[in-house]
Amino acid sequence: MAASRSRTSRSLLSPAMGRRKEAAKLDEEQLEELREAFSLFDTDGSGTIDAKELKAAMRALGFQVKNEEVKEMIAQVDKDDSGTIDFNEFVAMMTGKMGDRDSREEIMKVFELFDDDNTGKISFKNLKRVATELGESLTDDEMREMIEEADRDKDGFVSPDEFFRIMKKKSDNPLDDLDDDDDDEFME
Fold this sequence. Notes:
By secondary structure, this protein is an all-alpha fold.
């Protein structure tokens, strides 16, 4: 039953997942957003930004990062070991992060479709409604198991963060159908 639950939960949630895989490349709007952030925080006009400027730019783009993370990110893309990054290095570094941010936005749109009563949580009733609308023939026990799988705080509901975790787990782990015993290993 675990494998069928996993396949069923994947089919209930798959509309956002196809789009999530497309997020790996930046579109023109995202590239322009990066250009603006880079220019705004290249305060001395040198064409490069240092760790302090990078942290400010990332905050402006909606990312919360620690100083050590910023230094590590610069080290990974700083080809000339200058301690700064130019725009191309910035784009290379941010491409995956922009995709992750957009993927979260897509997943949260799906969450809102489930949460039709605007409680900020997905209930058994919400899940049952979506399953019925999609023509999925799930038993009440199967739907309860789906909620239990995602419900980390054991309050009987699925919060936005819990929903995001389970969606990332389902989309990032191609072996998920083979090993359903890794409930505590959520990827984020």
